Hints:
Layout lengths: L2 E6 L3 H4 L8 H18 L2 E7 L10 H6 L24 E5 L8 H10 L3 E7 L1 H14 L3 E10 L3 H12 L4 E3 L1 H9 L10 E2 L2 E3 L2 E3 L6 E5 L7 E6 L3 H20 L2 H17 L1 H12 L3 H19 L7 E2 L4 E7 L2 E6 L6 H12 L3 E6 L4 H13 L7 E4 L3 H9 L5 E5 L2 H14 L3 E4 L4 E5 L5 H13 L9 E7 L3 H14 L18 H14 L5 E3 L19 E4 L6 H4 L6 E7 L2 H9 L3 E2 L1 E5 L4 H9 L4 E4 L15 E2 L2 E2 L6 H7 E7 L3
Parallel strand pairs: 1-2, 1-4, 2-3, 4-5, 5-6, 7-11, 14-15, 14-17, 15-16, 17-18, 19-20, 19-25, 20-23, 22-23, 25-26
Antiparallel strand pairs: 8-9, 8-16, 10-11, 12-13, 13-29, 18-28, 21-22, 24-27
Helix pairs in contact: 2-7, 5-6, 6-15, 9-11, 9-13, 10-11, 10-13, 11-12, 16-17
Amino acid sequence: MRTALLLVDLQVDFLSAPGLEPPSGVVVREAAALLEAARRSGVGVVHVHTAVEPGGGDRMPHWKALGIRRCVRGTPGQAPPPELAPRPGERVVEKTYFSAFTSPDLDSALGGAGADAVVLAGVHLHGCVRATALDAYQRGLEVWIAEDAVASDDPMHAAATRRYLEGRAARFAPAAAIRERWAAPTRVAADVPRLPAAVVDGRALAGGGSATVVHASPRRLSEPLFTVAVAEGRDVAAASSAARRGAAEWRRMSRGERRKILETISLRLDAEAAALAREVAIDVGKPVAQGEAEVHRAAALIRRAATLGVGEAEACGPESVSRRVPLGVVALITPWNNPIAIPWGKIAPALALGNAVVWKPSPPSTRAGLRSLALAADAGLPDGAVQLVAGDARSAAALMADPRIDAVAFTGSSAAGWAAQEACGRRRIPLQAELGGNNAAIVWTGADLALAASSVARGAFTFAGQRCTANRRVVVDARVFGDFLERVTAAAASLVWGDPLEPATDVGPLVSAAARDRVRAAVSAAAPSAEDVRVPHGGDAFAGASEGAYLAPAVVVGPPHGHEIVQQETFGPVLVVERARSFDEALELANGVPQGLAAALFSGPGPWRDAFRESARAGILKWNLSTADADLDAPFGGWKHSGLGPPERRTGDVEFYTRPQALYGGL
């Protein structure tokens, strides 16, 4: 197979437009890495640029109607950013309309290169990238799209485009996976375990296809831990059909019987906490002490959920009563970072309220998921109550699209949330989504600076910042800015950075080389415009650091508020420090990002608490506490881009996992 890389409309005018997701910095970095990999590997490169004449007479009709002037030939906006500039000998194709194939030069370039496959990166996914993909497909080319190197200013439309293309004309993959494929095919030793594509009624299914996801050790990247078979349509159908059958039996059980089973599961998890924590440390790099706490947290969540139930029907009017009934079959899509607590925090209330479950864990957490499900089966959970499907984003998409699924509960990134929202909206089924947080703490007048620095550093850097409530930003009163900065740097340096299997470790590796490289690139991109970038551990590395996905914690001081490092959730060991000269400015900075999961205030008594409580735009507010962590009994849900649907826990669980029904005439 001969492949060509097509870079579509990666030009300053398009990249500087507001509202791109992913943001332009991410797209440019991923596309530039893809471009360099193509050059090293001998993959042909074609730069596709929109070019409009200065008079504008050749603009697309809707540009004329809207008064849009972009990519005028010879202007700075028509050029690509320096990282994506063509080199001598690389083809440049100019177009005016959507598809790159509207220029005959592209067919000529691909034909001359003998290409039978193309990889697309660029903007906009819902427009020019889509049109180019469909035209490439029509010409018989195999089409791949680098999912993190394409952007759109209409993310819902982009999510629909991805679903449409992936089922027909194109395959999506991370840019890192495409680069690895160009460098060398991945070879996995025969003795590396292959995990099943699904577990249906207690029976492992090998999967209907050959696609697998390889997961390497975060501690030693050269060591593949396991491969995960990718569940395809038939595997998902088998799991959802089994759940539909199991739902009827599970619902017929009494509330007391369900409660007893769930309580037994919680006891098994508590008993196996140390063993599970070690497995989680190996698979996702979570330090064992934090992993053990997570397992006990999962057990406590199950015990609390076991008490859930719905009462008798309540009288409404002269002839009506209301009751709540289970949804039926709920799909749960969960991340890798809390592979026990997040899934069981969803599974348990769904089961307690009479539903059956199909669970899709993230690939790195699949082994932990299988282990916890086996423990639940040993504790008496019937096979029909919970089914498991494994795999990647395609498997999740197939699950959400399955007609036997009645609702979806999802935890993942804000970007992935668009796909869940589109899938559930198209089918008009309920969605509960927790979509991460770019969480800020404010440090203000009268704060105990030692407490604030210690709390913020621990909240920012433990587990390498890989949790949704991590303290990613701190806004500091200008009068104590320097003092606090020194204290938080020292507090970060005091955290133990090392092997997650060591009990004393606070900060372990990131989950993968791709995650490490992404976070490192984000910090590097912020450095030129920041006042300072501090690495509290400096050169204080440890044995084995070079073998894994380790990244030393970084404190990014005073970057522009509009910079990507401020606006986007890094999901890594990075703390952004901003200064404010008034409390109104501090609130504006804290609120001034798309997400809104958690926010904190460190201050003494005074008007600040009331102002913070009234004006902070987040689902979780704290005083003199880090944003990290949350009580088991408090509602857990984000505002703005951080959440959809009812919050998890308390009344939110009953609200989501059951639906109201009105009964008339004495039913």
